[in-house]
Design a protein that fits this description.
Layout: H1 2-19, H2 37-49, E1 54-55, H3 71-82, E2 92-97, H4 100-115, E3 121-125, H5 130-139, E4 145-149, H6 162-172, E5 183-188, H7 200-208, E6 217-222, E7 247-251, E8 262-267, E9 279-280, E10 285-286, E11 294-295, H8 297-308, H9 311-331, E12 337-338, E13 344-348, H10 352-357, E14 361-365, E15 369-375, H11 382-395
Parallel strand pairs: 3-4, 3-5, 5-6, 6-7
Antiparallel strand pairs: 1-11, 2-8, 7-8, 9-10, 12-13, 13-15, 14-15
Helix pairs in contact: 2-8, 3-8, 4-5, 9-11
This protein binds pyridoxal-5'-phosphate.
The site of pyridoxal-5'-phosphate has 15 residues, from helix 4.
Cofactor: pyridoxal 5'-phosphate
Organism: Oopsacas minuta
Protein name: Histidine decarboxylase
Amino acid sequence: MDSLRAQNYVAELKKKYQTLPPVIYQLGYPGNFKDQQLNIEAKLEISKIQPFITNSGSSLNIKEVPWISSVEVESDIILRLIAPWGGKEENTWAYITTGGTEGNIAGVHFGLKELYPYKPILIYSNESHFSISKAIELTKGQFSAILQIPTLRNGEINCKQIEPNVRNVIDQQDSAAGDIPSILVVATLGTTMKGACDDVCSILISLYSMGVTRDKIFVHLDAAFHGGFWHLDNHNPQYQIGIEFNSIAISGWKWYGADICGLFAIYQRTSCTYSEQGFREYLSINDIGITSTRNGLNAISWIIRFLQFDWQEEYNHCQKIVKYAVKQFQSLDIETFVNPASLTICTPTLPTLIIKKYCLACYDDGHLGKICHIIICPHVTEGLIDILVTDLRECIGEMKKTSWFK
Ligand SMILES: *Cc1c(COP(=O)(O)O)cnc(C)c1O
């Protein structure tokens, strides 16, 4: 009787989801929806054998656990993901999170721990993802100041604004003369709206110029979407863990199209990644992440996706489609803006019909006015862009003429 009730509910859900357009039309979403069948089937097969696969703590350096887990798989995918960033089993602590947001919360949390007992100044930009505001909300009171630095027109942090803002804080906090503050930096690799990447080296240089030494700085990289393809483009600076940055967060579901999950990785500098309070004796794990029991299928889905594609090829394909889409927009006389090495195409706000159909994210940007974006993930083809362009042609009359990036 109860199972019938559940089955009926499922039938209702199926009806609902069948009426929705396929996910590939969500061009405003940075998710990779290409060829998901393998992932779905593999997970289903495994779930039929073991429906509850749970991981806790970090899987690195753990060889076995008494319950059914995927620690070896989690370890495997983590090591593959951190390798291009210089991460290894010996120098990194990491775990699979629920998503980029948890990774950012962990970054701020561990940054505070690493810099303790200093109360650091937090630096982030006004185009940082809202998960950073969330992380700040959760850790409020632990910073001596919170500085939201303005961005340049393209969306990256304006490094020239860092020094005057920090100096201003130091002058106001009547700390003993010569006191050099500690700084927690959250830098973004690929802002949500414009795909802009903060220049981490310039941020560090502006802090060094004030006499702040590297050991008083903790840099967390929010690389939610761009972290997946960053190292596939040799124009990008190859930031290394423990050198340019201390921790990183990458979303598993964005570039890789794995299940809803993410990666948090931190350079092991001090004992902060091991704590007495974090040791759970009866589980013999060191549980210091934000969440405890986690879905072990996430690591499995991520490694399936990781092995399924030649990611260099996927990146090259996406760049080709970006160029194609930009050309198509030009032919409609719609201006576009794309940051270097980004797959996010900004346009002035498009007609409502288009925004609804393609789930485009829109917002009022201080620099460019009302904009929206189209994100080119591996599943996007020239054919899909052609469909969008045909739709656009029909309602282009509604668009106001704008001119930006002249
Ligand atoms: C998407 C995004 C996040 C959050 O990631 P989730 O996986 O959605 O939690 C964080 N930062 C940036 C820049 C993002 O674009």
